[in-house]
Amino acid sequence: MAEWNQPLQVKQVTFENRIVMAPMLPFGWPEKDGGMSEKTLAHYLKRAGKGMGLLICQALLVSPENDLLDRAGAYKREHLCFIKKIADACHAGGTRFFAQLAYAGFDASGGGGRKVTELSTEKMAEIGRDFVHSVRLLKEAGCDGAELHCAHGSFLNAVHSPIENTRQDRYGGDLEGRLTLLKEIIEGCRECIDDSFILSCRMGWTETLEGDIALAQAMEKLGVEMLHVSGGIPADRSLDIPEDFPYNAFVYTGTRVKQHVNIPVTVVNDLQTLRRGNELLREDACDLIAYGRPFLADPDFALHAAEDPDYIGCRKCKACQFRTDGDRCPGPPARK
Ligand SMILES: Cc1cc2nc3c(=O)[nH]c(=O)nc-3n(C[C@H](O)[C@H](O)[C@H](O)COP(=O)(O)O)c2cc1C
Ligand code: SF4
């Protein structure tokens, strides 16, 4: 049982509080050569160290391959500079900083893209090495951890999914086989994951809660040190949520996973207010509470929520403007 403002220690990394800014790519703000534009950097610097225990930046690419959106990456030494700037700003304000990592071009949640069955065994191994290289760069840039993007139909999510991954080689087969690439990534990162650096996974749900629990436990066994639970493959699934559970299926899944693992679990999606997130912490249903759009609409969401736990940062527009051009976000509703 915890309160939002109680610290959490994972190895030698202390999170000053339990509020997390979830990873969010501001779509429509093109970057160049995998670097981060002044505009995107300013977006992060405006939020860094502003009252959250952990800030996780958008999925940075581990390689320029398949990048149709001109996204920022973490695959060249030149990228260390912007990552370091965000890390330093976070640390100056008492916030821990993770960067999320992803491999582009796969969207098994319905957006098209390539299939993991198209890749040769050697290519799979090469992508694994790209992840390891990026994790090393994050560590060098001063991040407190890396979050491997294994949710939302992303590449690693597809590799872990029995629906998408019907490969016949060592990267496919049963759950253990489908986690071979993750195992290789973790083994490759061993020497850079010390007590001051955390390896986390954003885990995507499976077809069933039993499948989610099995996946989470297998990830923990491989050495994943924190889990951030979100949607996966299939993108929609029917789930019997108790009628008196006042949160959605994403959060419910995270709370169920939490009961079956020994590593910290972050829940996310439509938590909206600090009061709602804090209830979950009090019930020991999770360890950290993540907010996405509230931080997009209001860079000071955590500071405002600390003053008023019912503060709502985001208007929940039908289509979030940050999915096309964040400049059009109307910002937070007027405060009472
Ligand atoms: C504009 C936008 C971009 C996003 N980009 C990412 C991303 O890069 N990686 C990721 O794992 N989730 C991404 N997400 C999902 C968020 O991390 C979060 O799970 C989602 O917004 C639900 O939380 P919320 O209801 O508090 O906004 C994105 C969400 C939005 C709105
Ligand atoms: S106010 Fe609207 S555009 Fe802004 S973050 Fe919220 S949903 Fe997105």
TrEMBL record:
Annotated SUPFAM superfamilies: FMN-linked oxidoreductases (SSF51395)
An example Gene Ontology molecular-function term: FMN binding
Keywords, in A-Z order: Flavoprotein, FMN, NADP, Oxidoreductase
Family annotation (InterPro entries): Aldolase_TIM (IPR013785), OxRdtase_FMN_N (IPR001155), YqjM-like (IPR044152)
Known cofactor(s): FMN
A Pfam short name: Oxidored_FMN
Domain NADH:flavin oxidoreductase/NADH oxidase N-terminal, chain residue ranges per copy: 6-306
This protein's name: NADH:flavin oxidoreductase
Organism encoding this protein: Guopingia tenuis
